[in-house]
Amino acid sequence: xxxxxxxxxxxxxxxxxxxxxxxxxxxxxxxxxxxxxxxxxxxxxxxxxxxxxxxxxxxxxxxxxxxxxxxxxxxxxxxxxxxxxxxxxxxxxxxxxxxxxxxxxxxxxxxxxxxxxxxxxxxxxxxxxxxxxxxxxxxxxxxxxxxxxxxxxxxxxxxxxxxxxxxxxxxxxxxxxxxxxxxxxxxxxxxxxxxxxxxxxxxxxxxxxxxxxxxxxxxxxxxxxxxxxxxxxxxxxxxxxxxxxxxxxxxxxxxxxxxxxxxxxxxxxxxxxxxxxxxxxxxxxxxxxxxxxxxxxxxxxxxxxxxxxxxxxxxxxxxxxxxxxxxxxxxxxxxxxxxxx
Length: 341
Prior knowledge:
Largest sheet: none
Number of domains: 3
Helix content: 55-70%
Strand content: under 5%
Oligomer: single chain
Radius of gyration: 26 Å
């Protein structure tokens, strides 16, 4: 069957999804295979998702699973997986280290299938929001990058074989002095930025995964500096780039697009009971058919979701909510991105 589908690679992209499945089903009947429509759909999906993508690029774009690959690419973009290669194109080891730093500083887009346990994810989430708060000002990423770099530059050098007592060296008073000195606060003064920086400092010092990766980056910077290369400047640039990436706020159009991509499979072929459970604000649904959610219903779900994630929709200058207009633009953007215009 796989060989038969392979022969259709050039023909299938010319047809919509329903006709693609019909062609595959007809080929299966020619081979004497007793299949159902669902089995054919599963076979086509398996063929598309488990083969090398470059060989099937055109076929994937025309397939009903194109959203899956677009969403996967988008998730990795949001997680910053493209940054290590840009910053260390010739050093695969340092790319892995910087990737670890990005993951430990936290990303809300990391897949749960490959992410750490729930407790660690909560720590990452708290650290992520702390970094976001510190990077809100225009010069925030630069200042935070300088703070982390200065901490790494002054990290005590311990002879081999000797233990380094982190709790003793970075005691509470020392950490408070570092935070207040960076923010210019008085002895007993504190604010939200101070609490956020305290969380970042605590993670850098005491979390093994983050500390180890940062120290490797610092060691690489020190070696470059000894070779009269811009080692420490390069490290600050890398940290600043990471913090700018974490800080960025997606526009409303992107939020709608992300919601559609992430929830596309869960908004299709719903029964009346499932729709009423999912959208209680619509009341008693008179439609008893099995169908996909309408545009209005998807808009309601997106608005509810964005409200929960603390990213309320922005209003136009005249005070009117442009949700419907932005939704239309977002969906047009998705179709264009997937080559469906």
